[in-house]
Amino acid sequence: MRSMLFVPGDRPERFAKAEASGADAVIFDLEDAVSAENRPRARQEIAAYLNSSPRAVPLWVRVNPVQTPDALADLAAVAAARPDGVLLPKAGGGEDLQRLDHWLEALEAAHRLAPGSIRMIPLITECAAAVLNAASFASAPARVLGMTWGAEDLAADLGALANKGPDGEFEAPYVAARTMCLYAAAAAGVAAIDTVDTEIRDLEGVARRARASRRAGFVAKLAIHPAQIAAIHAAFTPSAQELEWAERVLAAFRDAPGLGAVKLDGRLLDRPHIRQAERILAAAPRR
User: Fold this and answer.
1) Residues near 48 by Cβ (< 8 Å), separated by ≥ 6?
2) Where are the domains of the chain?
3) Among 51, 61, 94, 263, whose CB has the most other CB atoms within 10 angstroms?
C-alpha cells in the first residue's frame, strides 16, 4: 500500500470515483471534512457504500477522536458494514489505541466479524502531548497496521502561524513530529505512513516530497486529491535498479552461507543490508 486517498464522508457522489482513482486505499472521512450536523447522514452514506462496494481497494473510515461522543457513534454506524480499517485521529497516547481496540473487539463480536478484522492506523502527532508521548505508541494492539502523523492540528495546538516555511517545506517542530512517527512505527513493527501534502497543482513538488519520505523510511503517503496519486506511486515504487540491487544482495548472502558480511560492488554489506533488500522487494509491484 503506497497511497491512501481521503474523500469527505458527506460527498457520496465522490465515493466510486475515489475507489476508481488508482489509490491503493480510500479513507472515508467523518472528522475534519464533515461538519457536525452532516455526520449522521455521512455515516449512513458510508455504511451504504461499504455494503454495496465491490471493494476494488481497501476501504477505511476516519472516525472522530475517542475523547469525543462522535467516535462511538461513528463506529456503531459503520462497523456492521465491515470497513477494512479505521483511521484514528488525535491519538494522545497508547491508551487511546487500546481504548479503540476494545471498542472494535466488542463491535466485531456483536456483528460476528473475525477478531481483529477491522484494522487501525492512528494519527499520533496532532497535539504537543502526543508528540511527547510518542514512546507509548510502541506497544500497539495487534490490529494496528501502521502509524501516520498530522501537521495541521499540531500547528493549531502550538499556536503557530504556519507549519511550513517560504520554500514549502515543514519547519523544525513538524520535522520533529514526523521523525517521532517514524520511530514509533519502527518500534511497534508497523508501517510508517507520511502525512498529506496540501499542494495539488505543484505535482513535481508532491513527487519530490514523496521521494524524500521514502528515503526517510516511510512506505506510503496520505493523499487529499486524485491528482497526487501518480506522483506518490512513482515515488514509493522501487525502480528496476533498486530491485536488481536487492536481488544481488540476497544472492550474495545466499552464496556465502554462514558469513555475517559480504563484498558487493566494492562495498562491505552486513545484516542491515539484507533487511533493506527485503523491504525493497516487498514493495515491488505484484505481477
Assistant:
1) 12, 81
2) 3-236, 240-282
3) 61
Tell me how far CA of residue 34 lies from CA of 31, 58, 64, 70, in angstroms.
Answer: 6, 21, 10, 12
**Which grid coordinates are listed for 189?**
513493527
Sign (positive/negative) of CA torsion 74, 156, 167, 219? Answer: negative
Q: Superfamily for 3-236?
A: Phosphoenolpyruvate-binding domains (3.20.20.60)
Any idea which residue has 452514506 for its cell?
45
81 near 47, Cβ under 8 Å? yes
For residue 235, what are the contacts with CB-CB under 8 A and spacing of at least 6? 207, 210, 211, 213, 214, 221
Calpha distance 83→205 (Å, rounded): 32
Cell of 26: 480510500
Residue 269, SS3?
strand
Which tens digit of pLDDT belongs to each residue from 140-194?
A: 999 999 999 999 999 999 999 999 998 888 999 999 999 999 999 999 999 999 9
Of 195, 202, 161, 201, whose CA–CA distance to 180 is shortest?
Answer: 195
- 29, β-bridge pairs: 8, 62
Amino acid at 70: D
